[in-house]
Design goal:
alpha/beta, about 230 residues, Rossmann fold, 9-stranded mixed sheet
C-alpha cells in the first residue's frame, strides 16, 4: 500500500478538528503530559499525517540527538504499518523521508533568532521549507512567553504552524478551567491544547482547548503498547 492509498485517520478528527492541518497558519498546538506518557509519540503521529500528504515537517528536539528522534519515527512507522497492514513499507518510508527534516539544539542554546537563522539558511538554499514545526523539549517556565511570542511571529511570517510537547508535573495545580500549570500564562497564544492523561492502564486523550468540549470520557486513547492513537471503543 503506497502513501496515496494509505488512509491514516487524523488523530484529532474525532475531537472536532475537521481541517487537514488542524492548526491554521501561524497557529500553536500543545501536547501536554507527564514524562514518559507519550508526548513525542503523539507529535510523531501528527508529523506522519502531514508527511503522508507531502507536507514538509521540521522536527526540533532540545532533548535528544538526531539518531534518537529517527528511532521514534521508525518505531511509530512500524506500528502504523502493522496496524494498517501496509505491505510495501520500504517504498512508503522512502517516499515520505524527503519531507522530514530533524534539527537539534541544546536547551540552553536554543533561541528564536538562532532558529530563524537556520531556517533562512535552509530556505534560501532551497533545501527545506517547512509547512509544520514540532518542538520537543522547550521548558515552559516563567521566561517562555517572550520566545513563544517571537515564534508566533515567525510562524505567521512563514505561513507555518507549530506543535509543542509540554511536560507537566504531578505536583503542579491546574488552573480553574483545568488547564495545566505550564500553559496557564501563555494559553492565549495557543489555538489547540491536548492532554495525555493516564487513567489506570489507559492513556486518555483530552481536548483542553480547541475542537469539541472536553469530556470525562474522551473518544480517543493512546495505546500504551504501541503508543498509537485509537478509538476508545
Amino acid at each position: 500500500m503506497f502513501k496515496k492509498d494509505l488512509i491514516l485517520r487524523n488523530p484529532l478528527r474525532l475531537m472536532g478538528h475537521e481541517t487537514e492541518d488542524i492548526l491554521p497558519k501561524g497557529g500553536f498546538g500543545a501536547v501536554l503530559a507527564r514524562a514518559g506518557v507519550g508526548k513525542t509519540a503523539f507529535l510523531v503521529q501528527l508529523a506522519f499525517n502531514s508527511l503522508l500528504r507531502n507536507k514538509n515537517v521540521l522536527h526540533i528536539s532540545l532533548d535528544d540527538p538526531v539518531k534518537k528522534v529517527c528511532l521514534w519515527y521508525e518505531e511509530v512507522f512500524r506500528n502504523i504499518a502493522h496496524q494498517y497492514n501496509v505491505k510495501q513499507t520500504d517504498q512508503l518510508w522512502e517516499a515520505i523521508l524527503p519531507y522530514r527534516f530533524i534539527m537539534t539544539f541544546k536547551v540552553e542554546g536554543f533561541s528564536v533568532p538562532k532558529l530563524e537563522e537556520r531556517l533562512t539558511d535552509l530556505t534560501e538554499q532551497g533545501i527545506f521549507l517547512p509547512h509544520m514545526i514540532l518542538i520537543d523539549g522547550l521548558p515552559f517556565d516563567e521566561t517562555v512567553r517572550k520566545p513563544l511570542s517571537d515564534l508566533k511571529t515567525l510562524a505567521i511570517n512563514h505561513s507555518m504552524h507549530v506543535w509543542f510537547a509540554v511536560r507537566i508535573h504531578r505536583h503542579e495545580r491546574p488552573g480553574p478551567d483545568g488547564m495545566p500549570a505550564p500553559l496557564l500564562q501563555v494559553a492565549d497564544l495557543f489555538e489547540v491544547a491536548i492532554q495525555l492523561q493516564p487513567v489506570g492502564k489507559e492513556i486518555h486523550v483530552r481536548g483542553l482547548k480547541g475542537g469539541t468540549a472536553p469530556s470525562d470520557h474522551p473518544a480517543l486513547l493512546l495505546d500504551p503498547s504501541t503508543m498509537l492513537i485509537k478509538d476508545k471503543g
